[in-house]
Structures are given as C-alpha cells and as structure tokens.
Amino acid sequence: MDRSHADLVITAGLAVLAGAAASAGAPTAVMVVLGIGLLAAPGYVWAKVLLGPVVTSLERVAVVAGLSLAGPVLGGLVLQSGGFSLHRATWVSLLVMLTLVGDAVLLRRRADQSNRADQHDRDDRPDRAVWTGGSATARRRRLPIWPVAAFAAAVLIAAGGVVLARYGATLQRYPGFTQLWLTPSRGHASAEELGLSNHQGTVMRYRLVLDRNGHTTATLDLTLADGQTWLGQMPFTGRSAISARLYRLPDLVHPYRHVFATVSTGPGP
Amino acid sequence: MVASRGILARLSPPAEREGNGRVRVAQSRLPVSLVALSAAAGVLVAAAAYTAGRLGYSGSPWADRAYWLGQALILVPSAVRLLSRRAVTAAETATVIVVLTVAEFLVKVCYSPAAFAFPDELEHWRGTTNILQTGALFAPNNLLPVSSLYPGLEELTSALSAITGLPVFISGLIVAGAAHLLFVCLIYLLFRHISGSARLAGIAVLLYVGNSHFQYFDSMFAYQTLALAFLGLTLLAAWRLTASPPSRERAGWLTIAVVGIFATVVTHHVTSYVLAAAPVLMTWVSRRVGHQRSAAWLAVLAWLAAVFVVGWLVFIARATVIYLLPVVGDMLRGLGSVFSSAQANATPLSGGPLGDWILSATAVLVLTAMLPVGWWQVWQRYRREPWPVAMAVGSISWYAIIAVRIWVPDGSELAGRASTFVFIPAAYIAGLGAMRLVQAGRGWAARVAAAAALAGTLTLMFDGLANGWPPYWERLPGPYRVGAYERSVEPEEVASAAWALTALGAGNRFATDFGNYPLLGSYGDQNPIGDIDYLYTSPRFTPSDADIVRAQSVRYMLVDIRLSKQLPAEGGYFPNSPPVTYLHPIPAANLRKFDHVPDINRLYDSGNIVIYDLGAVLNSGP
C-alpha cells in the first residue's frame, strides 16, 4: 500500500466498519468510538479534497471539524426533502456515502497529480508532505517528556473535576416527595385510575382513603419502598364526585396529599 | 490580504540584540504545560466549589472564594503567558487558547453535570428528542416554536445520539463543546491571518473571553453555539478567498464558504443575519481602501448569504419575523427615546452586588479606552488593509451596545446577546491597543504599560464571568428557589413534568409558572402558557378567570404552592408576563382557590405541585 493513500484506506475502512457495526446493533461503547469517527471521516476527506497544501495544521483541523459538523446538518435536510426518515440507518448511510464518495474523488485527484508529477520531476511534489501528515523529519521528532506528562496530568485533573461534579450532583439532597394522582382509566369508562408513587428517599407507610359522593368507600394501608409505585382503580356509576385522601402514617389528622374529580360515565369534557 | 511581514515584525515580542548582532528573544518562565496544569486545577477547584454548594454551602463565602480561585487558576496564567513581554510561539498561543476554552467549558459542564437545567438547553433537548422520536425535521416545539425552523443543532445532535446510542444530554454536550472550541479556534485563526501575529490573535481571543456570554451562553446546548462555528468557518474562508489563493484552492475555499453560509442559515436566525451583514461591510471597506479584488469576492459572498437568508426566511421560516419583531421594536423604541429625550424604561445596569457593578463599569471603561488606541494602530499601520479597517468600523458597535444597555428596556439582555458578535471586531481592535501597551518601549515605563494591559485584560475576563451567567445569586448550585432558572429544577418538578406526559399525553395547553415552564415544555412535551398571572393572583375564581381560561384554551393548570412562600429570584413569577415588582409572595389562598371550584378537578398532588384539569371550564360558558 502506498503510504500516501493510508488515510483513504483508514477513512473508508472506518466508514464500512461503522456501517456494519450499526447494522449489527453493536453496543454503545463500540458505537461511541466508531460513530464519532464516522462523523469526523467525511470532514477529513472533504477537507483534503477542498484544501490546498498551504494551510496550517490548526487551520486544517478547524476546517475538518467544521465540515464534519456541517455534514449531518446539510445532509439531514437533503434526506428529509428526499422523503427519508432520519433514523440511525439513514444517518449512517449518509455519512458512509459522504466518506466513500470523498475518498473516490481524492483517489482520482491523487492519481492525476501523481501522473503529472511522473511526467515532470518526481522529487518536486509539494503536496506529498501534506498528504502524509508531515515530513519524515517531523515524524521522527521526539516528544518532550515533561510537557507531555504535564498535559496528561492536566487531562486527568480536569477529568477528576468533572467526576467530582457528577458525584457531587448525586450527593445533593432534595426534599423527598410523594405523588398521588387520579386520571381517567384506560379501557374503563366507569373507573378512574389512582396512582401513588413514593420518592421520599425511604420506605413509607401510607393510608389511602377513597370517597365517593361524600362517603368513604375504601381505606387502604400501603407500604411503599423508595421509588415504588402503586396503581389502583376507583369505580363509579353515573355522575359522581370522587376523591382520594392520602395520610402519611402515623398522622391521620392532616391529609398529606389530596386529589378529586367530578366524573361521569357519559362522554367526558 | 497578505498581512505584511513588516507588520509582523513590528508586532513581535521584545527582543534584545546580542553582541554578534543576532537577536535574542527572552523565553517565558511559564511553560504552556504549566498553564494547562493550572487550568485543570482550576476546573477541579471550581467543581469542588460547586459540590460545596450542592452540599448546603451555596451561601458560604468560602465556597464562593473557592469558585473564584478556580477561575483565577484558569484565567490568570493564560493571560500572563500571552501578555508577557517574553517570546511566545504560534503553537504555544494556540495551545493556551485551546486550554482556556476547554477549561471554561468544563467548568460550565460541572455546573449541571447530570442533565440540562437551563431553559434554552431544555428547549433544544425537546427539539432533538422530537427528531429522534419522529425521524422528521420541523416537528413543532412548543417551548421555542422558532427553533424547529432552524434544525441544524438538533439534526447534528440527533445524528450523534442515534448513531452512538448516547443520551441526548451527553450528545448535546459533545456537540456544544466541539462547536464552541471550533468557533474560538476559528476566530483565533482569523485574527492571526488578519494581523499576521499569533500573539496579537491570542490577546484578542483573551479579550473576546471578556464577552459576558462567552463561558455560558455561547457554549451551551443552543442553536447559536453551533451557528457561531459555521460563522467562523465562513469568515475564515472569506479571508482565504480575498488573500489571492491559487485557482484550485479558490474553488475549495469558495465551496467551504458556501457550506458555512448555508449551515449557518439553517442553524440560527440572528447569526445568519450577522453573517449576511459582515461581507456587506467588508465589501464597502474594501472598495474604500482600493482593494477591488477583495471587494469582488466579498460581494459574491454577501449576495450568496443574502439569497440563502431571504430564501430560508421566505420559504421555510416565516415565523421568525413574528418571533424577532417585538425584540427589534423594543430596541428601536428604546434607542428612539434616547434621541427624543423621552423617559426610557430601562432596567438598572446591574442589580447585583456592588463589587460586580464596579467590575462591570471598570470593564466598560477599559474596553472603551482600548478601542481608540487600537484604531490609532489601524490608522498608522493598516489603513490600506480592508480586514483591519472593517474590524475598526465594526468595533464602533461596542458603543451602540452600551447605549442599548443603558437606555433600552431589557437592554442588559439584548446587549449581552449582541456582545457575542460585537466582541469579534472589538476584541481584535482592543487587542491591537493591548499589544501596543505590551510593546511600549523599555524600562519601568514599559513594564507598567504591560502590567496595565494585563490588568485591563483580566478585568474584562473576570467581568465576563461575574456579570455573565450564572448570576451572583446562583453562582453556586444550591437549594430550590422560585423563578430561578437552574435553581428551580429539582426532582419533584422533573417528575411532575414527566407525569404530565405519561398521564395526560403531549401537547396540552398548560398554564404554569416560570420555574416549571421549561420542564413542562421539554420533559413534559406540553404546550406551556406563561402569561396568565391573573389566573394565579386573583383572590377568587370569577367569570373573568373562566373567560381567560377559554380565551387562552387552557386545559390544565400547574400550581406550585412555593409561589406563596418566596419572591421570584429574578424577574417575575411567570415567564411571559409584563414585568411586575412583587413586594410579597402570592397569597396561598389565591393559589388554592381552585380547590373550591366545582368544575375543576384536582388530578395530581406531589406536595409542592398540584395539577388541575380545567376541561369543564374550557368547554362551558359562551
């Protein structure tokens, strides 16, 4: 393999691999690596197609990033106008196609330039260093140890800051709460759905008192773990005023939650 | 434009001539790797301050000091490195800029590390989720209807989320972070090309960081963040086109410019208008300074931008006019009152602590004073160069946003939003001024001048943080507050919004308050209404209330009983109501009045939040 085409092989291989992994339903960890690579690949290839050899490294990286971000933005509009639904397969197909077409254009251009260079002077090819990512001297240059170690430490410390912030968010204490609700029951015209969900951060004991037209029809004692939800139904006939009062045991004096509705077996509002 | 080598030489760092005639430039004692380490430590310290706030110390002066120590660890070494009189290479300058930008973005991430909490981010979370759920663009977004007409950000984020399987929050952070860093790198490259000096470009970016929207609004998961990256890409391509590239490269840069213009147009309205205006200004300037070739290319880009912007506005995004017209109207009325000597209804410059106000005033004075120095530099050295002259002309807008800030109602917010764009030319011109000070002569006077440039730059940078976002009252995360953006987002509010979607379905007209509004519209996928405060504040439910319910088609109503316990942290209790100064919280009886109305059902109760069904009221009456 000619080294000047290594980038084309890598981008095309990445695109095909990402496409295959997406079709096979690869796990998120794999798709994060391949997916981000797939998003960047069209930008890289098309920046190679569009840019000349005189741009700086940072400028080249910036254009690659800009085109990578613009690809899905403009491609999505084209797909939408073509009647395609924007799901995983469509996005992957778009990016694979953009990458492979770019690779083909670049390959053709390099072949043309190589032929022209053969006809003139093989030693005078200014683009070669750019295609191969720099001169041999630059590639041989060794990285200084201490600055690299300092930057690595900086990355770890900053990552530690984000981890600390995320951990701190889990430690933040919020007031616990209990949800009580009353909604029309799906599939039962003569019943309301009653729900109770405990988010107090601990096991809770409740008493639920159900009333219909001012008379208590049922009393339930419930014990719910943190995060647990209880669902029940309140049947009724004709036009009824129904309500549910929730007490937090042992306090049976002050209703803790309260919902009510005037309901009817006829068509609702 | 070929920035002359002479200019580059004049802008190079101080040098000493050795005995053999060779020039020796003093090397900095502060390596860039140390700047990176310090910035990383700053992120860690700021994260620790945020954690202290979450653990109940949000009001502690020590936690606040820790936050500012973290920011100092990020900002000061970066500024010292670039503003010292010692040598700095282009690679070092670029690295410092990247380190600074990434560190500030990570501090922003640490503020809300588990989920989006700011209303604008929740709006775009909803838009992205809509695309993921429906597979189609332009689906209605009740929280920010105009955003669905500019789907660039949501497209990119939904593509990343769909391909990788990452949640929208993580995908959004990646997209916003990448776009923000790209934008900063692009304006650095642009400044560097225009001036021919990496150091000047670095200093100009430092001054740009002083823009009060830099750390938060311009890096959040919002459509402007991505559009700014495309704006930067287009400006870079425009510069390259005017710099006489070979014909093959010209086609490439023109293609990149066209991609950048169209991507900007479909991503954010205001950014696309700025993009359309910028080449017009530069065309005019190019003609004035006699650069006909530049003028021709910039005119082509101006026409392309205008066609794309108008085409998108006419065929896709007509509702943008309705969205932006009131804002423009308020601004023009406010400015008009300046000239007619009428009493303007402006908000105070700053309602925060005295220290923040002094810092803000000082920063305004610093930039206002630095611009004329920069203009003088342009006149002396660059007056035949169209890009520096265009920057000088554009920087005059700095004085316009000061006027807006002082005289226009809600002017602080408008000026803040405009500063994202105004600071591009202003930072460049002020950077020329700062560079002049750094290079001023020799001896103690030179050191004083360099120290003044450093102090001025740091004043701007700290002002951008102190008077940007988050405001002083929620600089550190902490317990719930009424009407307080991020501080109004807690599990109970999120759970209530999620319940509304599950139990009631999507798209219901929902009356609500400031704090619950973005959550109901995003996680709840409801159509929230935020301008019917009368319904909440009236002591009894009267026929007038019922008329409001019918007029606004209110189906459900969320009542947060904490509105009776606290005054709103900022603004009002309701997001879209005219400004009202509340002296007391809303009486609890006014909020509970719905319990006694026969036709109103009380469907949900989570303690602080109650949801009522107004269906019977809505369908009754005239």
Pick out its properties:
heterodimer; A: 269 residues; alpha+beta; Immunoglobulin-like; three-stranded antiparallel sheet; B: 622 residues; Rossmann fold; 2 domains; five-stranded mixed sheet; two-stranded antiparallel ribbon; 7 strands
Describe this structure in words.
The complex is a heterodimer of chains A (269) and B (622). Chain A has 269 residues and is of the alpha+beta class. Chain A has helices at 6-23, 28-50, 57-81, 88-119, 128-131, 136-140, 145-171, and strands at residues 177-184, 191-199, 204-212, 215-224, 229-235, 239-248, 257-264. Chain A has 2 domains: 3-171, no CATH class; 177-264, Sandwich (Immunoglobulin-like). In chain A, the strands form 2 sheets. Chain A has a 4-stranded antiparallel sheet with strand order 4-3-6-7, with no helix packed on it. In chain A, strands 1-2-5 form a 3-stranded antiparallel sheet, with no helix packed on it. In chain A, α1 (6-23) packs antiparallel against α2 (28-50) and α3 (57-81) crosses α4 (88-119). Chain A starts with 5 loop residues before the first helix and ends in a 5-residue tail after the last strand. Chain B folds into 2 domains: 2-221 and 318-474, no CATH class; 485-619, Rossmann fold (3-Layer(aba) Sandwich). Chain B is 64% helix and 4% strand. Chain B has helices at residues 5-10, 32-57, 61-83, 90-111, 119-134, 152-164, 168-195, 198-209, 223-242, 247-265, 269-288, 292-315, 319-340, 354-382, 386-395, 397-407, 411-438, 443-466, 491-504, 517-522, 533-537, 543-551, 588-592, 615-618; strands spanning 16-17, 23-24, 509-511, 527-529, 556-560, 601-605, 609-613. Chain B has a 5-stranded mixed sheet with strand order 4-3-5-7-6. In chain B, α20 (517-522) links the parallel β3 and β4. In chain B, α8 (198-209) runs antiparallel to α17 (411-438), α9 (223-242) runs antiparallel to α10 and α10 (247-265) runs parallel beside α12. In chain B, 57% of the residues are buried. Classes of the chains: A alpha+beta (269), B mainly alpha (622). The interface between A and B is large, with 84 and 103 residues. β1 (177-184) of chain A pairs antiparallel with β6 (601-605) of chain B, so a sheet runs across the interface.
